[in-house]
Amino acid sequence: xxxxxxxxxxxxxxxxxxxxxxxxxxxxxxxxxxxxxxxxxxxxxxxxxxxxxxxxxxxxxxxxxxxxxxxxxxxxxxxxxxxxxxxxxxxxxxxxxxxxxxxxxxxxxxxxxxxxxxxxxxxxxxxxxxxxxxxxxxxxxxxxxxxxxxxxxxxxxxxxxxxxxxxxxxxxxxxxxxxxxxxxxxxxxxxxxxxxxxxxxxxxxxxxxxxxxxxxxxxxxxxxxxxxxxxxxxxxxxxxxxxxxxxxxxxxxxxxxxxxxxxxxxxxxxxxxxxxxxxxxxxxxxxxxxxxxxxxxxxxxxxxxxxxxxxxxxxxxxxxxxxxxxxxxxxxxxxxxxx
Length: 339
Fold this sequence. Notes:
By secondary structure, the chain is of the alpha/beta class.
């Protein structure tokens, strides 16, 4: 958190650390938000900039944010800017959001609809892509600014049927087979890195994912974690480096794996959910550690899969010491509908 805390302190906001400098917990003095210029790294977290943008309408002066290029996760900045504009706040920005200016003003009440979360949907989309099934997801906005919306474009490029009707998207892969050589840049939607790793394990050809360097700073080092766990399954996957940092991976998949192994989520809910999806196409059940971590973002995750007809559990399986026994899916699944 140091880039944000240092920026606030430099702008005259009293920041007192109650533990290790640059980390929570902190105490912030109630002097009001001053506005002014803030310089931030563009490859650590967009949340520093969105936090400043949210405070900026109440600033004593316009807030100028300058971010180093390239700016990762710019979709979150775009969503924040759009929300401020709807509320009557002036926002100007460069096309790549490396420069953002927010003008103080009166926040105007407005009605808005919060669409479904495409990252949460990505796990169900992945299951529909790697298994013979047809899935309907309701409550997603087709014009959403979420970067993780790209999961639908990615599976469509792989040959999966994707069709929109209002706020309902249908995802279908009658054969459950994925073949070809594909490349995905996730710089604008890094939360789907683990999901793509799970999908890639079953691509007959290759899937290369780049632009995910900042996921090293998420709840786990997600690329290294998924590479390590998928290798336990026998997946041919290698990390890719860019400028001295792990930036992505290349995975060369195949139709299925034996399974019957213990997997760990490295304390990260998104790793758990992605490993769960991959386990659906293994011949034997896998035991996945970290089920309790799923509550961080998707507490109904397992129930959603059960409601959709996917085998999240059975009477003999369940949570014991944080482990979940992930059962393989049946070879042929009927249509699955999930709202």
